Amino acid sequence: MNRTFTFHITEENAGKAIDFFLKSYGFSRHILSGLKTHPQGILVNEQHRNTKYQLQQNDTLTVTILEPAPSEKIVPVSMKLSIVYEDEDILVLNKPADTPIHPSLNNYENSLANGVAFYYQKEASPFVFRCINRLDRDTTGLTIIAKNSLSSAILSRMVSMRQIHREYMAIVEGITPESGTVDAPIGRKSDSAIERMVDYEHGERAVTHYSRISHSSTHSLLKLQLETGRTHQIRVHMKHIGYPLIGDYLYNPDFSKIKRQALHSCRLTFTHPITGVPLEFTAPLPEDMKVITCSL
Predict the structure, then answer these.
(1) Range of 242's domain?
(2) Per-residue pLDDT, 147
């Protein structure tokens, strides 16, 4: 989506080139290159300037990020979205089960991307779908959508620097210790395009912290924090230590209590990519998991 930023230049930043100034706010080389191609991309006191222009005290710098085209092959489809938070830069959703993040073969019109594309169809500018923390199809809960290329670049950098803190809730088989940490590398299973496994020889480092909230004689409700973000990390780690998630069609296909893996993204904390304001979002357990926890 198009997004305009306005900066009032103080004495502290006078004499800095525009590109140097904008890089300090998270503008990447790729974004700066795109700004150069639009006459309204970079304006100083309403006059077009190139990125090497040296800013002066009391200048007004206006930067407009324009989306050239919407995401390809994402068909807008009417879908009920559970919106937790929205502003000019980010959208936070509570994703339901049985909803893939992106369209794929046999899931061309039922993904979260389709629903978000429909939601923004009314906007005058093209919408590019940029999901920051991707959830598995049947994992419910909080996910962040970046609404422009700058917020996306900054949030992606925050993910790589582990500055977006994610907390999950899961129901597993067995009675776990009260708390623990799983530090075991995860890699792709050699005979599967989808499954992952603990692989001490070729896997990438993966760390999951967990604490037990409650339990019955057969199951435990856990709160988990990810230190890394490997594919299927919680599902693989909990199976590895002998407490697999219930309803997990890949790693523990027992659907006697629930028809999907009992995993929910319940809490996200991070600083806003543009304003720097601390943010915290929570999402309650979905009904199918809540019913099970009543007996734990």
Answers:
(1) 166-265
(2) 96
